[in-house]
Write a structure and sequence with these properties.
With 148 residues, the chain is α+β, with helices and mostly antiparallel strands. The protein has a seven-stranded mixed sheet with strand order 1-2-3-4-5-7-6, with helices on both faces. A hairpin with a 5-residue loop joins strand 2 and strand 3.
């Protein structure tokens, strides 16, 4: 399923491709929000100070990324390009964390982003809290390791 996908630390040369993946993925995932609030420039602003890893194919085409706020082991962003989802790429990005980041991990997921909520639950993330911000209700999820 994810054959030929390489996970590596993001580099400056990846910025344009990452910004596009970030924009296109959010437009699709957050369909209920005003699309004008999403901009290409958001990637640099929203990942400042975070560790970013990319998933790419053998030709260097970027299919997705994960960004982590390391001091809190908080996964701030995990996005896979539209058309590349359901291929195991998101799972591979999450699994790659174990090589450098100790458990547990945390993240927030919008309740209305049903596909993402289902993905995390399927991959052994557990709900620890709920909250609401200016963009809607979210779940706080934690990962303590695989259950099987």
């Amino acid at each position: 399923m994810n054959t030929g996908i390489n996970i590596r630390r993001a580099e400056a040369k990846d910025s344009t491709a990452l910004a596009r993946v970030f924009l296109e993925s959010r437009l699709e995932a957050f369909y209920w929000q005003n699309p004008a609030r999403f901009r290409l420039e958001d990637f640099e602003e929203e990942t400042a100070g975070e560790k970013v890893f990319v998933a790419e194919d053998g030709s260097g085409r970027i299919f997705g990324f994960i960004s982590v706020w390391e001091p809190e082991r908080f996964i701030h962003h995990l996005y896979i390009a539209p058309g590349q989802q359901r291929r195991g790429i998101g799972k591979r990005l999450l699994e790659s964390l174990s090589s450098w980041l100790p458990l547990p991990y945390r993240l927030k997921c919008k309740v209305r982003n049903e596909a993402a909520c289902a993905f995390y639950r399927k991959n052994d993330w557990v709900e620890t809290a709920r909250g609401t911000d200016e963009h809607g209700e979210y779940l706080v999820l934690e990962f303590h390791g695989p259950k099987h």
